[in-house]
Amino acid sequence: MLHIEIGMRAIGVQSVRGGKGRYYESQRVREYKEAIGWEVRRQIPMNFKKYENGIVVRGIYRYKGKGNGYRIKRPDLDSNINKGIMDAMSGIVWVDDAQIVEFWVTKLDADKDSIELYIWGIEELNNIPLQNVFVFPAQL
After folding, report:
1. Domains along the chain?
2. How confident is the model at residue 138 (pLDDT cuts 50, 70, 90)?
3. CA 43 to CA 4: how far, in whole Å?
4. Fewer CB in 10 Å around end: N or C, the chain?
């Protein structure tokens, strides 16, 4: 299992835009993905080998706000929030984000913004009790 905590806000990113053979990604999106990529590289062990088979990801996105429970307001928890994070980790933690076979995300109000990820290769899941995979916010 790999555990990564990034001290920044999870934001929605749009897919690459363009038309007529010209495609681009906004500078804001590029910088966001690069920042995540550098932080992930900093945290993974030196001998880490990218996952090459199926993976399961547990994400916890914390947003600075009033309250200390589930966040019942924007940003929406849709694929755009996950897209930038998963794309940034492709080639670093896994070969391609198409390898993700299960992805479970929670968003919470907290004292500070952060992105927390738990990542398992499917081979690892065969050797551990299921209750150890599903980390609930109350347990954190």
Report:
1. 2-139 (3.30.1330.70)
2. very low
3. 7
4. C
